[in-house]
Design brief:
The protein has 220 residues and is an all-alpha fold. It has helices spanning 2-11, 17-20, 22-38, 50-66, 69-86, 100-119, 127-143, 165-175, 181-190, 202-206, 209-215; strands at residues 195-196, 199-200.
Length: 220
């Protein structure tokens, strides 16, 4: 996902990209080594959790880069399967009882794909009464030192990971204008987002961008 995201940026910002041949070599590598892993049958036999969320995000990013519609459709199908099974209406995830790190892995894939979809004109953020909003506030509350009443177990792995938090906050608070007090508190204590695995740098790419767009004067 990280490589495809970087390639997408270069493709649309560097005039030398077409002549470089990088995209063809990169996609040949993806098709030979990465795609078999993304399509591995093992994913159909594991509980729907952070692995499938990450696979969905990766396929969506590759689809955005290449225009391969079947990858986009597969990514959205996985996204819906995961969020239906993984995130409860209260915001708790299946892996919250495991540790907060893994639940953030899962949420990160779901949020980052929702942001990609938004940029493509598809609204996943509002799915099931804005389930991601509830999940973000639920887990931010834990990161801030709280314990939701639904968590009748020991909370483990409590800590912040930069996995889509700024993106989700920029959408719900920036675009929609909804208060997210727990997420706001957590982000204020952890900005700027670093880069971990294939997540991060959200402060650089999304911090207050929606508010700034709203404040721009209308074109004459």
């Amino acid at each position: 996902a990280s490589f495809a995201r970087a390639a997408e940026l270069l493709k649309h910002s560097w005039a030398g990209w077409p002549a470089s041949g990088v995209e063809g070599r990169f996609l040949a590598w993806v098709d030979a080594l990465i795609m078999p892993q993304l399509n591995h049958d093992m994913l159909n036999h594991l509980p729907l959790a952070n692995w499938q969320a990450t696979v969905a995000e990766c396929k969506a990013q590759l689809a955005t880069l290449t225009g391969r519609r079947h990858l986009w459709d597969e990514a959205l199908a996985w996204w819906h399967k995961v969020i239906d099974a993984y995130v409860q209406p209260c915001g708790e995830c299946q892996e919250t009882s495991r540790d907060l790190f893994h639940s953030q892995f899962g949420l990160g894939g779901l949020i980052q794909l929702a942001e990609m979809a938004w940029q493509q004109g598809v609204d996943l953020y509002s799915y099931q009464n804005n389930k991601l909003f509830t999940a973000m506030e639920f887990h931010a509350y834990i990161t801030n030192g709280g314990k939701p009443k639904e968590c009748c177990y020991e909370l483990k792995g409590i800590g912040f990971l930069p996995c889509g938090w700024e993106m989700g906050y920029n959408h719900y608070k920036g675009r929609m204008g909804w208060d997210m007090p727990q997420t706001a508190k957590m982000l204020a204590a952890n900005r700027p987002e670093k880069y971990v695995f294939h997540w991060g740098l959200g402060t650089l790419t999304h911090y207050q961008t929606a508010e700034l767009l709203h404040k721009r004067p209308a074109p004459a």
